[in-house]
């Protein structure tokens, strides 16, 4: 289903917000006060992951939405680029929290489970499950781990063994007509490259491994054509 900007605006004014990921409605919003209706600010609704989100944010765990809960949830959503930023404790927000927990747990030993092969010399590893990437040279960690933003549902980043075959520092997508700085292609049109988005912004890329600018630049300086790339796991929500 395609939702136009005009239709979305009408629904928002009627007190509904649409989930970007699934185009499913979430309950009524508290609107800004004043002489006329203003932009939506906070939902009054209890989300399906209310208790888990409350616990993560060190809020009183009662499973009921409050103004203070909404404020804390909105702050988290804004920090990590989770949209819509309305304070709703839904599956996208909770999934982001669990991904962050897994990323922090990786520490400086992201390949502890030895799922990325390290017997090939220099290799860039991409763990879709944890949305992490790093570069190793044998058993030595050379860079990372860093958060990445991989393919959304229907545009998944393909798994398996790859090699970097083409690099273009100022690439522009011929399909989506967007800038892809520090592009390093490893599988068809899929590449490492920087974006001006937060790595947790849903729903994800069109298959590329999005990176923060500093991380993509470091990858550009560390890797070259012919270097190995290994992608494994499954992105949450796909």
From TrEMBL:
Entry's Gene Ontology molecular function annotations: peptidoglycan L,D-transpeptidase activity; transferase activity
Gene3D superfamilies in UniProt: L,D-transpeptidase catalytic domain-like
The keyword NADP appears for this protein: no
Catalytic site: 193, 208
Organism the protein comes from: Streptomyces brevispora
Record keyword Transferase present: yes
InterPro entries: LD-transpeptidase (IPR050979), LD_TPept_cat_dom (IPR005490), PGBD-like_sf (IPR036365), Transpep_catalytic_dom (IPR038063)
Superkingdom of origin organism: Bacteria
Signal peptide: 1-39
Listed pathway(s): Cell wall biogenesis; peptidoglycan biosynthesis
UniProt-recorded name of the protein: L,D-transpeptidase family protein
PANTHER family: EXPORTED PROTEIN (PTHR30582:SF33), L,D-TRANSPEPTIDASE (PTHR30582)
GO cellular component, one term: extracellular region
PROSITE patterns: LD_TPASE (PS52029)
Keywords recorded for this protein, A-Z: Cell shape, Cell wall biogenesis/degradation, Peptidoglycan synthesis, Signal, Transferase
GO biological process, one term: cell wall organization
Residues of the L,D-TPase catalytic domain: 121-232
